[in-house]
Amino acid sequence: MQIFTRSVNSIARGTLIGGILLVATLAVGALLYVRSPWVTLVGVPRQQPIPFSHKHHVTDDGIDCRYCHTTVEYSTFAGMPDTKTCMNCHQQIYAQSPLLAPVRESWANGQSIQWTYVNRLPDYVYFNHSVHVDNGIGCSSCHGRVDQMPLMEKGQTLQMGFCLECHMHPQQYVRPKDQVFNLAYQYPANQAEVGTKLVQQYHLQSKISCTDCHR
Amino acid sequence: MTEMYPTPPNGDAREPSVSPPLASSPARPAGSNPGTPLKLWRSLDELKTGRASKQAAPAIPKPFDAVTRGGFLKLMGASLALAGLTGCAQPSDWKLAPEVRRNPDEPQGESLYYATGFSFAGHAYGTLIRQYAGRPVKVEGNPEHPASLGATDIWGQASILSLYDPERSARVLNQGVLSDWDTFAQELTSQAGFHRTSNGGAGLAILTQTVISPTMGELIRQMLAQFPAAKWHQWQPINRDNVRAGTIAAFGAPQNPIYRFDQANVILSLDANFFEFTPGHLRYNHDWASRRIVGPGKMNQNRMYMAESTPTITGGKADHRIPVKASEVEAIARAVAAKIGVTGVSGSAPASVPAAWLSAVVAELSANKGTSLVVAGEYQPPAVHALAYLMNQALGNIGKTIEFTDPFETASVDHLASLKELVDNMNNGKVDLLLILDGNPVYDAPADFNFASALSKVNANGLSAHLSMYEDETSALTTWHVPMTHDLETWGDSRSFDGTTTIHQPLIAPLFQGHSPLEFLAIVNGLGQTTPHDLVKSYWQREMKNPPNFEALWQKTLNDGFVANSALPAKTVTPRANAVPPPAATPPSGLEVIFRPDPTMYDGRFANNAWLQELPKPMTRMTWDNVLYVSPAMAHQMNLSEGDVVVVGYQGGTVHAPVWVMPGHPDGAVTLHLGYGRAKAGSIGSDRGYNAYLLRTSRTPWFGGGATITKTGQTYTLASTQRFQNMEGRDIVLSTTLQEFQKNQNAIIEQVKLPPGSMYPGYDYKGYRWGMSINLSTCTGCSACVQACQAENNIPVVGKEQTNIGRWMQWLRIDRYYEGDPANPTQYNMPVPCMQCENAPCELVCPVDATTHSDDGLNEMIYNRCIGTRYCSNNCPYKVRRFNFLLYSDWKDDMHRMVYNPDVTVRERGVMEKCTYCVQRIRLAEQRSLAQGRTIQAGEVLTACQAACPTSAIIFGDMNNPKDPIVNLKKDPLNYSLLAELNTRPRTTYLGAVRNPNPDLKGV
């Protein structure tokens, strides 16, 4: 008397293979998921209290990054403009625009504008803007084409793999220091050559010790 | 230490070069020398049993019952399944709120340093406060300030925690009912107005601590001019009455003695603990150490003789210390003075003093005229001080190793007499308006004054007000309580031991609606509600004679941290005839009690500071409690052991106190520490330890005879850290004497066991190569480094229970070793941070690469990567890793969280942590230098411990930079690696302890 029929063999085999396939699919899916914009938010415009357009201010008006992000060249933090920076112009231009009501409100009652973070690193990562910007790493290398973003979005994942890619091969990403704030900068065809020269010229170091970023 | 490896052929055993030479003899496991007695011991148990005591440590509670195989698999499965999920959370709606109008001078994301001062208990030193995003986060010493020279002490470091203490008082109380400052100001104005018009201030009394603020002094003088009948009293339980009375006895008027330890070859300390509490102690540490460091080209050391009652860190550094009862010091002083030739003094030393010691002291002092120094302890009676001054006079030291200036205090008064007068007036109904500006007299006044009952008489016919940072014992009994500002919240000024005046700048607006004593006095003086800033600035404008460039001068003064040329000039002093009072007719008899300020709590004002509560006290490594010191012989005689509770009876009062058997304590005496047993200190400080003030009377504020001790049979759990993280009797502290070292430069190296060597080539560190050197000759064990490390690196406190099971978190520990007879042992202190081994055993065993090696040779610890296996800690031979068994860090309280250093991760439960050489400072300096296109200069990076150290015992630097002082220290013949035989090649090395005993005085 046989309890199991012959077909059970196939079912068992199928279950085993199916199980392995399912686990593999889930694992691959999970890996794809954490790299997808659902998680990384790359290219996802964020809702802000004021629909501030970098595209308009940078491309149309030609305002330099450092007009608002004042400390980027000498501080760890690039600097967020205070309300006064907005009001410098908007006391005159679009002074009555309803879109700018929150700015005027902040100016009048002394309450900060609450922007939503677009590029935020975890608390255990200590990033220093000045050391990158002062050594030929351009804004657009991490933040993307900000000059083409009507609403601010993340340009890169800013995950550790992204950081390490550049830290291990700086010659692929370094640019002349006078091009750092040029968001439309195109790497030349012979970047491998140019980059290697710049790395020597700027005494760039491949900083890949853990404590360079984590303390 | 008895057997040692032969000196290697190249003579350099301390730091093997890149590829160490193979030692000529086979390796022998360290510490495997059974049969030889321990040379060094850390506790009496260890001395008795020959090995570190472990039985004393209580059992560690088990979180789970015995683990079954099934249960283990279940837990492992769950852990595996959930392990990856921790990385998934990504808060996407964090807000960024920039200011509306930003101060353009304040760089976002960078720290600023402001010069100000730290004043406490009647003296002060200059500090630099690191401010980040508008909040002060770290205290450093001001390198240009003569009282600091860059160093700080434990109280200065810990003061930043008190600033953010959520339990500070934040409300004005009127008879226990909520009120507000304006109501109080109105009431005070009207009360003062009444006194002004009706009776010239009769019945108005003001009680302060020692006033060292010139602005406050002027306000008080103005007040006394407005209210001629008003009285000003000063009281501090730890005061300098004896110094004052001693100078009056010797010179006819109060003087301020200033010591020049850098000029002294021979020092005689008569129970003087000048390393810890004395005004100018940081400077004295520095000056003493400058004559203590030996090395190539500097083969001399000062020598210190000391007659000491309660063992202190000063006694620990003395070359010839004799334990004597506090009451015997005066007789010793008389005997030495008589032999030196001070006229009109006679007497012989007590029998307990070895004759050889006495004659050596006399001979050495006499041989070093003008380069010797006699220092009297602040807790010794005025006669000892007068004798010390006369001895210095006879030795020609005045103007050389000791100087006198006018008192730096605003008004030099006898605190005990001043408080006595106040209490008498209160009891006689002569006070109807009592203003207590800071201080806590209900808790710390002499027991026989019964301050609380006197206070109730004031309240019955008038009112009393208490300004203080906490709602404490005194606040509870006064009519009004007003919250006081912290030093870092308000403008002020203070004078240091030499008179140098510091202007205090606020670093943050008052967090708890506090008010400064200056505002308080301004209201009494009818100036209305003014700001401390205006009061201080206008005072200095007048004081500087209102020069046309005053604004620039003011800015420069604030920037420098002190008023230029404000030190007091040295005076010529002439001793009076018959300057020394005759000895007391009947010396105290019976068991002697000695009262001393607590090494961390001081007089009790820091009771609610958890950092100080958990800081191991330098001599006992005790935390969270005070103890009763008894000598080993007395403990043996009375069958007392550590933790036994005894009843101490003295002058009608009793307290229950746990016993601590203290090596080096004099027989026939016990020491009680003040500052514990607070009833209303806050949740950290209340009801801890015993209150020694209950036994302290105005007749015997510092010591007296006739006490009794009765054993109760109960025991009390004491949390001492010295039971843990010991190194199993291996040769740890290497020491030699100056004489031996002069003869043989290899005296330390020869004691080092060499590693067997390696077949692999070493790693070539091309860039920076950070290293540290710790000088055991100058380390006093003061613990400022431990406290600075705690403040810099966001190290949590764990509480008494966790401390007691070995889970305390301070990255830097100071091991205290004894050598010799427990009745009077020699003491060594050894700070042990992470050694930053080049061959780090911890790195090899981490399964997740959470601890790795950086390219400049740091042993990195990456918290966010750590999964808490603790393998690294198990494999660490130096036991310098700390594990967060529970969530010790405060992640919730928004006030307390402000103390955190923004550059250092706040660690979570289940994470290992350890010293990183303050890597955040290294990396910031590195990034700053890279952005500016240069390299880090020598001295640009200071670790927190190094910056705090008053004796510069800790030096840190880049061993690849020939200009860095660390390079020479690593070549010093005293340099050795801890447990060198393990071939861990530590970057932190030690300079062996060199003592300078008198060769003619063997065994004393």
The tally of strands of chain A reads 1
Give the overall pLDDT of chain B as a whole number.
87
- Poorly predicted sequence stretches spanning 5 or more consecutive residues of chain B: 1-37, 53-61
Radius of gyration of chain B, taken over Cα atoms and rounded to an integer in Å: 29 Å
Q: Kindly, what is the distance between the CA atoms of the first and last residues of chain B, rounded to a whole number of angstroms?
A: 23 Å
Find the biggest chain interface: A-B, 46 and 42 residues
- Along the chain, the helix and strand elements of chain A come as HHHHHHEHHHH
Category from helices, strands and their pairing of chain A: mainly alpha
The total count of helices of chain A amounts to 10
Distance between the termini of chain A: 69 Å
Helix content of chain A: 40-55%
Percent of residues of chain B in helical segments?
Answer: 25-40%
The biggest beta sheet of chain B reads: 7 strands, mixed
- What is the arithmetic mean of pLDDT of chain A? 91
Quaternary assembly: heterodimer
Strand content of chain B: 15-25%
Question: Would you give an account of this structure?
Answer:
The complex is a heterodimer of chains A (about 220) and B (about 1000). Chain A is built from 10 helices and 1 strand, in the order H-H-H-H-H-H-E-H-H-H-H. With about 220 residues, chain A is mostly helical. In chain A, helix 5 crosses helix 6. Chain A is extended. The N and C termini of chain A lie far apart (about 70 Å). Chain B is α/β, with parallel strands linked by helices and about 1000 residues long. Chain B is built from 27 helices and 40 strands. In chain B, the strands form 12 sheets. Chain B has a 7-stranded mixed beta sheet, with helices on both faces. Chain B has a 6-stranded mixed β-barrel with strand order 21-26-23-25-24-27. The longest helix of chain B has 18 residues. The N terminus of chain B is likely disordered. At the A-B interface, strand 1 of A face strand 2 and helix 25 of B.
